[in-house]
Amino acid sequence: MRRKMRVESVMVAVFLALILAASFLVNGEAQAAPTKDKPMELKFAHFLPPNMFLVTDGFAPWAKTVEERSGGRVKVTFYPAQSLCKAKDDYDSAVTGIADIAWHSIAYTPGRFPLTEVLFLPYLGSVTTETANKVYHGLYERFPEFQKEYSEVKLLWLHAGSSAGLLSAKKPIRNLEDIQKVLVRAVGPNAAVAEALGATPVSMTVPDTYLGMEKGTVDAAFVPTEALISFKLSEVTKYLTLGAESGFGPYCVVMNLKVWNSLPPDIQKIIDEESIKVSPVNARGWDLKEQEAIDLMKKTPGKEVIYISAQELEKWRAKVKPLYEKWIAEKEAKGLPGKKVFDEAVRLFQKYEKEKGSK
User: Fold this and answer.
1) pTM of the model as a whole
2) Which domains does the chain have, with CATH numbers?
């Protein structure tokens, strides 16, 4: 009898093992493992237009490769242009599971990523987005407190965006006096920059900026220069002021933790391997598109590209310098290594600026 019970126990254990091998967990419940015929759909939310270079050159190729390498067991479905959730809610959509994957602009959740926001501080360096991307990764790799800011999700990749150019609908901004009391679209930390310069910041998403500038809700906008093309802001922009760009925009692509943990290990490995490749592609794309946007403004009749002189820029720097001390003090008061993160950011910016200059 005992032998029979042992045999039955072994058979039950084997049966359960076979079930688990052919299944995965979602919210604690066993589900059929994804197959080519019945793939697991991953909902990818972002607020970008489908033709934006980050999508066509980064997100879409990534999704295609992940699908192919998984043998068709996962399928990535994109929800662009705020079709699944609003831009400001992208990150939380991944946390809660409304989206499985989301691309998020850190600017839309001020205070949520306190150390990451060091990248918003203006005039820390004049390096390209590609090298600013290296600064972002360097800070993430060095500071556990930096990494903790992304602990609610599975971080797939993070990347820097270009510095926020200054677009103006009607009034040329050639010096500090020209920006006084001007209504400027500026979100997150960029709002403090606009205010320090004497402008009046207005919170507004990039997709809403077109109507804002067209209807006069805002007179100007701090946005990545490439938005002149991807969001067609060149149609409502007459002047582009360069040399007075604000800090670099940090972004991240994240996955819901439960969904990530439910994936078979081999699919997790594929996603990790492919995700690490996308960040530099995203960053390089900003630099290429930024130059393309500048060239578009230069060749379009009735448009003007204005360059702030080095002497004039020193006046702008003097106005925003107190933001450095304030940023450090606020982070230290919360028990965060604000001074160390700031100093390391400056060091890395200077390092890459020097390397760029030596080439």
Assistant:
1) 0.83
2) 37-358 (3.40.190.170)
**Residue 130: strand pairing partners:** none
SS3 236: coil
**Closest by CA position to 167, among listed 126, 198, 213, 124:** 213
- One-character DSSP codes across 281-347: HHHHHHHHHHHHHHHHHHHSTT-EEEE--HHHHHHHHHHHHHHHHHHHHHHHHTT--HHHHHHHHHH
Q: Splitting the chain (359 residues) into consecutive groups of 10 residues, what average pLDDT does each group show?
A: 48 43 47 86 96 95 98 98 96 98 94 95 83 95 98 97 91 97 89 94 93 97 92 97 85 98 97 97 92 96 94 91 96 98 95 79
Tokens representing 223 are 């946005």
Inter-residue contact 233 to 167 (CB < 8 Å): yes
110, two tokens: 């001020």
Coil, strand or helix at 123? coil
Phi-psi group of 336: left, alpha or beta (phi > 0 → left; psi -120 to 50 → alpha; rest → beta): beta
